[in-house]
Amino acid sequence: MTSVEEGVPDIQDRLDELRELKRQAREGLDPSATERQHAKGKLTAYERIELLLDEDSFNEVEPLRRHRAQGFGLEAKKPYTDGVITGWGTVEGRTVFVYAHDFRIFGGALGEAHATKIHKIMDMALSAGAPLVSLNDGAGARIQEGVTALAGYGGIFQRNTKASGVIPQISVMLGPCAGGAAYSPALTDFVFMVRETSQMFITGPDVVKAVTGEEITQNGLGGADVHAGTSGVAHFAYDDEESCLQEVRFLLSLLPANNRELAPVEDSGDPAERLTEALLTLVPADSGRSYDIRAVIEEIVDGGEHFEVHPAWGANLVCALARLDGHVVGIVANQPTVMAGVLDIESSEKGARFVQFCDAFNIPLVTLVDVPGFLPGVDQEHSGIIRRGAKLLYAYCNATVPRVSLVLRKAYGGAYIVMDSRSIGADLALAWPTNEIAVMGAEGAANVIFRREINASDDPESVRRQRIKEYRTELMHPYYGAERGLIDDVIDPRDTRRVLIRSLAMLRAKHADLPSRKHGNPPQ
């Protein structure tokens, strides 16, 4: 038996050394840094990853990476991981890639080695065809490393764009995100934020005050509720990290791994042939009365469960992911409780982005229509409702996934066309017997068509009522569209669920080709 040469460590020594290095990488060089992180109500990067992924499924990549920068004291401080944790694991058994800034190390600031680790894990996610989740908690570019840090961001942006529409990309904001760093989340599919602890802005409060004289807090400028309800930058806002990461897991369970696969099918136990009796009373026949479209969605989908996207922004349009007979669908629906369900700039942009996402990832679209038109007003016109409203039109016209639209009540003017009408490519256009499809409401139409007659009459109000009734009878009865092939069928509201399920089952093998082109040029 050969003895170990004196002074040469044996395998056990090496294993002990490796264990110590891994401990340092996980715990960091400063134990108090973890305490400070917890004192702010924030978890560490490793704790966040453990909440996101299935138990004991995380495989770390480059935990022993260290920077090579010189100057400004960096050469004396070379912690393992370089402030970002990268790797892959599973969510409900399906592969997910993740990177998480470690605020305990350089404040999570991005340097050359830090960026290279992120680039590698992004490339791996794209090659493997699996979702990528970024857990953001960083102080921006590492100033001591100069322009190389900025170049690192460029590599991230380039990869975000390359992966767009190929794998789902989810950004979870768990701390500050300032300057150019904020553009990576903006390039991803979904942005989650946590109230009080996460902020996003291009220029911070100090710069804003210096340039404009305005005083504002970080949360007031770029907090979770600001971006979820005012700017539309964030899709979701939560009170704590635990609930936020749990919802990220739920969203991932609804999404396919990539654009070549379908979303996972899950048996909910909700019968496909179930009648939706409640719809007879949930939706008033009087088109002037309001109701909550979410209640309609809950009645139709499996188990009443749906995951609403951007609930606090553009709330006059509801966009949600749900299941019908176990298959994931994207639902776009006008919301009568908010501005009567009209389309405006925010709701059009929100809907367009959602339709594009569903189309990119093979998620069929169900559109529930109850729309009185586009929102009139000087502000809307001057802010570009024409080009920005056209985004929703473009998204629907460009979508090749199965598309079924259902008119519940009113569908007037250009908004009727935009809400996935038969004329712009809906595979099936259905309606309830309470539908009113027209250029405009009967009152407005009668006032235009019969204006002279009404004004010349001895009893203008009586003539107006008569002409309104005539217009409604001739051009707005529930079978007018069906008689002209614009509606494929008028259905009993109680049959809504089973008709939608049967329709989508028929369309499951749909294949549609777009014209040969590099890419379209959608309205901006």
UniProtKB/TrEMBL annotation:
Start and end residues of each CoA carboxyltransferase C-terminal domain: 271-506
Boundaries of every CoA carboxyltransferase N-terminal domain copy: 8-267
Xref: PANTHER family: PROPIONYL-COA CARBOXYLASE BETA CHAIN, PROPIONYL-COA CARBOXYLASE BETA CHAIN, MITOCHONDRIAL
A GO molecular-function descriptor: methylmalonyl-CoA carboxytransferase activity
Key words, A-Z: Transferase
Top enzyme class: transferase
EC number annotated for this UniProt entry: 2.1.3.1
Pfam family, one: Carboxyl_trans
InterPro entries recorded: AccD/PCCB, AcCoA_carboxyl_beta, ClpP/crotonase-like_dom_sf, COA_CT_C, COA_CT_N
Lineage: superkingdom: Bacteria
Gene (name only): lanP1
Residue stretches in coiled coil: none
Residues annotated as signal peptide: none
GO cellular component terms listed in the entry, alphabetical order: acetyl-CoA carboxylase complex
Protein name: Decarboxylase homolog
Keyword Transferase: yes
